[in-house]
Amino acid sequence: MNADEWSEIHRCRGEGESIKGIAQRLGISRNTVRRALAMPEPPHDHRRLKGSVADDADARIRDLLQRTPDISIAELGRCIEWNHSRTLLVRKVNQIKTEMTTPAFEHPSIGTGLPQQPTSFVGRHHELREVRRLLGDHRLVSVVGPGGIGKTRLSVRAAEEYRRAFPDGVRFVEFASLRSENLLSQAIADRLGLETRDGPESSADDILIEYLRNRRMLLILDNCEHLVEGVAALASRLIEETSNLRILTTSREYLAIPGEYVFHLPPLPTHAGTGSGAVELFANRAESALSGFELSDSNVEAVRRICQRLDGLPLAIELACTRLNVLSVEDLAERLDRRLSMLTVSARGRTPRHRSLQATIDWSYELCSETERTLWCRASVFADSFDLAAAVAVCSDNVLSEDEIMEAAAALVAKSVVVRETSQDGVRFRLLESIREYGWGKLTVPERRHMNTNLLEYCAHIIEESTASWYGPEQLARATAVSINRGNIRAALHSVTNDPADPALVQRAADTLGASRFLWACGISVREHRMWLTQALELPGVSRTARGRILTVLALVQTLQGDRDAADFTLRRARELAGDREDPVTRSFAVHITGLRDFFAGRPDSGMAYLDEAERGYQLYGSEPELVSMLQIHRGMLLCSTQDVSSAAEAFNRVFTKTDEIGELWFHSYATYGLGHVALLENAPDTAVQRALEALRYQREFADPIGKTVMADLLGWALAAQGHGARAAVVLGAASSMWGSIGQQLYGADHWNTLRERAVHTARRHIGTSAFDAAWARGQAMTAPELLAYIFDEDCTGDEHPVPDRGLFTRATTNADTSQLELLSPREREVADLVAQGLTNKQIAEKLVLSPRTIEGHVEHLLRKLCLSRRTEVPRALFST
Predict the structure, then answer these.
(1) Vertex 720, ends 719 and 723: CA angle to 5°?
(2) Pure H helices in 27-124
(3) Distance of alpha carbon 259 from its chain centroid, rounded?
């Protein structure tokens, strides 16, 4: 309860509303209402009102403010028929105006990754303050405690409340689904949006350190206990080699490295009566499980006894509350007493908290039906979230039917065994790690192997569907299915590579990896794709055909990384295995990649000869249409490098037309890019900009590092030709950083490097060396999603689906010498003008009807963009141009 809620509760009560009505209106418990009415003064907590009646009018208020920004409070209230507190309406309007005008610097594809919690946060206020203090004093804090004590929940809440203290953002990285220490850095890179920063000469650790070196960011590394040595080594490097990074880990075991501060999370207190955290949690969850439940003099002692017997362990309390639909509080207390007494005798080696959680999970398991138990145990094979279709595919058989799985899943959600999550990808389910481990432990070794086999089959099917649909209208949906199942795919492949005892499973995994040429564009990074391909080649018993196909895909990945020496060796092996007759399409693909390698190495003549040979092979042996389209794209790029513009346009147009007819997007984006490249060579930079923006708009839906980079480079060249010097410098700086991480700049192609040097020279001449260097440095610090948000002007529009003609780069620029001022969003420029006039943050906030915190954020951002250290330098920066 906060001060706003206290005030609203007293106002409603003063108007004669019942306690039950107030609770329903504000979305809080009746006990909270009673506690507020018993308090003569409001609490010292002034967070904004949550779950209030104003939230019901949120959509209508937003709609009116968007259509009529200057509408008065009185007129707005009449339009929505507001009959509540005017203060509450003013607060809601100001909140929405702040949200509508505050830059959204985190692109949706990056996000914080903070998991959405299905239930309210209860208690732990002292612990939150302690975590905040520790993060202020220490760069590495580990929240340690047994399973089910609430480590993840506390860390998520801390991140939500303290994210403003980290101007470069908060990122939550969940390690529970990982099975290999080799993927720790990759998991963090995925969350940071660093999929483009991949190279053969630098490790993933090096890439992370380079990106995080000077950023004021909070990384939350969740569920580290099963990978504690790897996390310790990585965290130690990150802390030693960065200056402002803060790391918060959650684990059952601390890392034991220098600089780590260990915060042992205690259980919820049980001794403070109705005001204790444990009792408050019980009451909150009991009200959800049993409508109308209230703490009273008659049941509070039994509730306290339950909480004490469960040692204040949040997960145990939540599981116990699900039994209130069939038991009274007193019956629940008595049964827990008996169960815990029996467990204490049979498990004396365990700690009291372990026994408490074990007893509660045991009881939940025993109270499940046989069907529910079976699904619980089988679903434990999922390392990540899963949907109902996945549960049916992996868990069903003649014992457990599809209908039974649907009913059992609903029952397990009701029992708090399975967590239901809703997102843009639909409804998905997840098991908490403690509950997943329990279910997995109930399976025998043969049952575990059987479930791993089913999971591999399901994941292989997802990948194969993506491969089969790669050239068609379902391409994006199938690629997204791979992306959201990345954790499960990792677990499935790890189960095979870690235990390659079953030849059939080994062959299944090898066949899948050999067929999936574009897995690196489906959410699995280039680096990780290469790792799985390399490990598949080391598996025993892989067929000659599968090995040849894996080698050709590996050669493609190595070539895209710029690792041409490794690719040359791989291609020789691939051609030997494929032969002329054994697998002619694979051999033609190997020839194709050889041509691509030579082109990138600056040998266009041999590159074209190999492409011609591959095309003849594709025509002769009837290859898939995606290979033909990919070859045409590569042919067009090569022809651009030899200045054969008309032939290049013909190759790109061929792909553009065919893909447009069938609704394909990925190859279409490359064809669009190619036509933009042609336009630039024909001295039509305006057309080149529009083509580059259109290509990036298609490409942003895919996790393709190469496409985003090459298209961003084209955009930078065209912007420089238009005279947009500062913006060109930002984009070129970002592209340069990405290319440097992939391999050689622009693959070492002389033609492309000449265009790059020309664009850099032009942009520097327009805005001067100092401004160019500042803009270039800003671009180099960007991730791919951050660059896309900048390109499409999302930091000031907030539009999730921008179109090119309303983006940042289609605006007319009247003076190319505005240099760094072009980097400011309209709101930041407005704030900068007021700062230059000498107004304080508070005065600016009042003038613009925004909160002081929002203004603080704008000032921080504009100072960083203008490369200034003090606000007193703003007038000189504004008026010197």
Answers:
(1) 90
(2) 30-38, 58-67, 73-79, 86-101
(3) 28
Question: Helix (H, G, I), strand (E, B), or coil: what is residue 404?
Answer: helix
Give the CA-trace dihedral at 156, 784, 671, 757, to 10 degrees. Answer: 180
Per the CB < 8 A criterion, the answer to whether 563 and 537 are in contact is no
User: Cα separation of 677 and 824, whole Å?
Assistant: 29
The residue among 793 and 355 whose pLDDT is bigger is: 793
* Predicted confidence (pLDDT) per residue in 218-259, tens digit: 999 998 988 999 999 999 999 999 988 999 999 988 898 998
How many residues appear in the chain? 881
Q: How confident is the model at residue 51 (pLDDT cuts 50, 70, 90)?
A: very low
> Rounded to whole angstroms, how far apart are CA atoms 631 and 701?
22
Distance separating alpha carbons of residues 58 and 66, to the nearest angstrom = 12
Per the listing, tokens 């630039």 go with 680
CA distance 636 to 647: 7
In this predicted structure, the answer to whether residue 808 has a pLDDT above a threshold of 50 is no
Q: Which two tokens stand for residue 29?
A: 């418990």
CB atoms within 10 A of CB 235: 24
According to DSSP, residue 386 is labeled B
Nearest to 586 by CA among 562, 570, 602: 570
Cβ-contact 741, 199 below 8 angstroms: yes
Distance, in Å, from the CA atom of 313 to the CA atom of 270, rounded to the nearest integer, reads 10
Write the DSSP symbol of residue 12: H
Q: Return phi, psi of residue 247, to 5°.
A: -125, 130
User: pLDDT higher for 464 or 701?
Assistant: 464
Rounded Cα gap, residues 779 and 771, in angstroms: 12
Distance from C-alpha of 386 to C-alpha of 420, rounded to nearest angstrom = 10
Half-sphere exposure in the Cβ direction for 69 (13 Å, CA): 6
Give the residue ranges of DSSP H helices in 442-563: 445-468, 475-484, 486-498, 503-515, 526-537, 544-561
Cα gap 476→489, rounded to integer Å? 18
Separation between Cα atoms, residue 787 and residue 219, nearest integer Å: 21
Separation CA 715–CA 677 (nearest Å): 9
| Cβ–Cβ < 8 Å for 490, 183 | yes
Contact 296, 322 (CB under 8 A): no
Q: What is the pLDDT of residue 48?
A: 41
Comparing 58 with 401, the larger pLDDT belongs to 401
Query: How confident is the model over 135-149, as pLDDT tens digits?
Result: 888 999 999 888 888
Say if residues 267 and 278 touch (Cβ distance below 8 Å): yes
Q: How far is CA 430 from the centre of its chain?
A: 17
The contacts of residue 585 (CB under 8 Å, 6+ apart) are 617, 618, 621, 622, 623, 624, 627
Sign of the alpha-carbon dihedral angle for 76, 82, 86, 91: negative
- CA pair distance 663, 668, nearest whole angstrom: 9
- Choice between 353 and 826, residue whose per-residue pLDDT is larger: 826
The pair phi, psi for residue 18, each rounded to 5°, is -75, 160
> Is the pLDDT higher at 796 or at 861?
861
Determine how many CB atoms are found less than 10 A away from the CB of residue 501. 9
pTM: 0.70
